[in-house]
Amino acid sequence: MPTTTPPAAAAAVVAQTAPLRITVWNEYRHEKTDPAAAAIYPHGIHAALADALAQIPAAVVRTATLDEPEHGLTQDVLDATDVLVWWGHAAHREVADAVVLRAQKRVLEGMGFIALHSAHHSKLFKTLMGANCSLKWREANDKERLWVVNPAHPIAAGLPEHFELEREEMYGEPFTIPEPDNVVFISWFTGGEVFRSGATWQRGNGRIFYFRPGHETYPTYHDANVRRVLANAAQWVRPTVRIPDAAPNTPPLEPLPLSA
Amino acid sequence: MPTTTPPAAAAAVVAQTAPLRITVWNEYRHEKTDPAAAAIYPHGIHAALADALAQIPAAVVRTATLDEPEHGLTQDVLDATDVLVWWGHAAHREVADAVVLRAQKRVLEGMGFIALHSAHHSKLFKTLMGANCSLKWREANDKERLWVVNPAHPIAAGLPEHFELEREEMYGEPFTIPEPDNVVFISWFTGGEVFRSGATWQRGNGRIFYFRPGHETYPTYHDANVRRVLANAAQWVRPTVRIPDAAPNTPPLEPLPLSA
Amino acid sequence: MPTTTPPAAAAAVVAQTAPLRITVWNEYRHEKTDPAAAAIYPHGIHAALADALAQIPAAVVRTATLDEPEHGLTQDVLDATDVLVWWGHAAHREVADAVVLRAQKRVLEGMGFIALHSAHHSKLFKTLMGANCSLKWREANDKERLWVVNPAHPIAAGLPEHFELEREEMYGEPFTIPEPDNVVFISWFTGGEVFRSGATWQRGNGRIFYFRPGHETYPTYHDANVRRVLANAAQWVRPTVRIPDAAPNTPPLEPLPLSA
Amino acid sequence: MPTTTPPAAAAAVVAQTAPLRITVWNEYRHEKTDPAAAAIYPHGIHAALADALAQIPAAVVRTATLDEPEHGLTQDVLDATDVLVWWGHAAHREVADAVVLRAQKRVLEGMGFIALHSAHHSKLFKTLMGANCSLKWREANDKERLWVVNPAHPIAAGLPEHFELEREEMYGEPFTIPEPDNVVFISWFTGGEVFRSGATWQRGNGRIFYFRPGHETYPTYHDANVRRVLANAAQWVRPTVRIPDAAPNTPPLEPLPLSA
Q1: Cβ distance D184 to D213 under 8 Å?
Q2: Does domain A17-130+197-242 sit in CATH 3.40.50.880?
Q3: What ipTM goes with this model?
Q4: Are the beta carbons of C193 and A188 separated by less than 8 Å?
Q5: C-alpha dist (Å) from residue C193 to A116, A213, C47, C174, C185
Q6: A145, D253: Cβ pair inside 8 Å?
Q7: Is B10 on the interface with A (CB under 8 A)?
Q8: Subunit contact A191:B253, Cβ cutoff 8 A
Q9: What residue ranges do the domains of chain D occupy?
Q10: What pLDDT was estimated at residue C13?
Q11: Which residues on D lie below 8 Å from A4 (Cβ)?
């Protein structure tokens, strides 16, 4: 009698030494209509993010945007994606539900997911959290200071104890997320608010990281510390497995009680 | 200058001494077509659940079923519900998305939610978890022994260290749920499997409890220990607040930096 | 064959309607030597804490201090204590290890424990956390604003979204505690720091709450919001059970495999 | 004005590509007095563990035992240790408190720690957990089946969905540990018990893994799946940083309020 099942999980192991295939998704609307955003991100926020992520050894970075067919997230693209990075703001509702469910399915199978800034209200992040993920906000020049709460977390590797962004939009608590598995950063704002600005969760087999900074009219994604966070995070959420959903009817491994 | 905000949360406090308004929702199909189920639950599983919950002091229990208009879960009913108990199995897909979203909204505001047995695959539970919540299963007479893993948890109050159900369907790990806030019960099955059979989460302001036992052809909800779990759980998930979702644009509490 | 164990846990259930017996422990040194502390707490910090806790219905509050025999925490006192509240600062090392272990044992059995302010470095809190629980600090007038991160938590009941203490000592992150079960409050300080100022854990069968504010030269424990937190917390950490430690050699519940 | 602190955390980063220095600690008493243990582990349990861990690329494994001076865990040894593996059973009380505190200090700085089998009651594990970590047990031939609860966890990499140990001692719930950060394995025993047999925590900057199997009279540490768990775990708990404990008095980063 075989004493172990076929190595189902083993078969799905994702090698940690393979190229890390990252897809950066951007709404890409502000940069086409708002001169302030265009001045900072002339090729789109996705280009700046891709540039930051390309510093990862063995990274293979592509981009996708809202106005491409299927928002650039076809099944083929998602099948070839290890880590999905998401920036969206004004057009969350335009993202097709079918694409959201397709991406959620890949996260549950094992794909990593990084939600940036106003992606707290993206359909995909809310779907994975099961909650509203709302917060206070104020679109005004403020200074944000991010404190590293868990310096041992790989996402904090190489960072100082705290770092500052001289100008950012404010996000404040309460942030109606599920209690995170780990809080990595907490932000201080001049205006008097605090915010859990870096937090992690697991859903299915996929790791998720939310990172707060990144308003489109500030040069946040050109900041060296922010770029380091992005590179660290993409490596930390990389998949360990790819396991399709299954709810199998299974035979017993031991004799069952005699029926009455 | 006022130094605190108006007591928004305070205004939404739900008195813990008020009547506890419980709505038991049941798919109510098996009991009408399967003689084995009908023999055990002649008035429906919801009637047995309601009977167990009526033992709670100050409980006011109503029931609702799939085939009622709006599945019996109109906005008025949900507005007057503190705790929603859910049993579903064969007809998850027939539950209207609008009702699922309405119920999710109430959980996020503060309503308690108890998902029973095959409700692990109900739309509402999956929506709140953000995951597939799949598992192994075997519809065969098995013996289930539930071990109390956290005897200090209020849901375990008054229970023995373990208790048994002589006949139950098997559910086995891996159970693809988000890591629970707390695991209260782990089950042992004769056939060789284990299962996290009682677990808690918070979503928004609402508490959630999943409890495994309850196949429709076994007298599980007549069992004294199971009935105690149900009564304990309904009290533990009762709301503390009712807070509508909001993402307010808020003025600063401290002077902002001078603009550049 | 009996199918359940004797109701060991049940036997240990602590009635939630019984009087709530609270012991407030205070180092009680600053108030005897520092005029600034004595002016604010003429009868000792313990007297102010006891006064705040006496507002709980059915509370029976006693106090104990470092310089009493056995620091006022004899086995008899601890046996008759449901919730232990701890304020200490300059004399942590003078607390006898035997008393610390005695109190830890009671927490593990089920007693609630509230550690206040500089009790983050008390022997008892560090012993229960298994960690250093260190932090940044600055003894200078600062303004602290506490944000309610989880408004549904019973410890936050009746509080505004945030409240302020016009003068407090600063504590800043990183706070080297184990990841809390729940973070209830996060503080903002004028000087630029943040802090997880209200957090919960469970150890054994006992609930633990750490609450940051309370420097001896500021009138923090006379503040209405702080007093509400204290009263809420004492009720939330109240025991559900009292279960002595045991590691029993137990007979099998099912037939074992035949020996080779 | 500098806007960031000196990169304290960065300075302490531990390169993930350096050799992985593992110290296997063993009580090493049973193997010298019990022929059944000696037959299975003729060179001691530590030798079998070291052999399993030596399969890790770049691992440098040393061993230490109770009866060596300072139990083989001098400050120099611990300073040169990235991961400490611990097997102890009958002589927990003989381990000097000074060595326990020295090892705890290293874990809090960042060293990984793996506690095996009856090390659940070792001074070091209990000190780090802050709890009794007690459990049920039965020294009798039983079959243990370990289910992988979180197949995405790196500690489960390459394992089948479940694996069996034909003969093992039984450990049963309740296991009075703090709620783990993650449960990786849950065990089923023929005798009717369940157990959280693989679980993780973080204390300070160090990662901790507890793994249940390993009674001295069974060939558990020669099992291929168990050896894979050990190798996976040692890599997962490897340090990311080394940060000494500090509680600094720090100057403000922003102007303080004017004193009254």
Answers
A1: no
A2: yes
A3: 0.95
A4: yes
A5: 23, 18, 31, 10, 14
A6: yes
A7: no
A8: yes
A9: 17-130+197-242
A10: 81
A11: 160, 162-164, 225
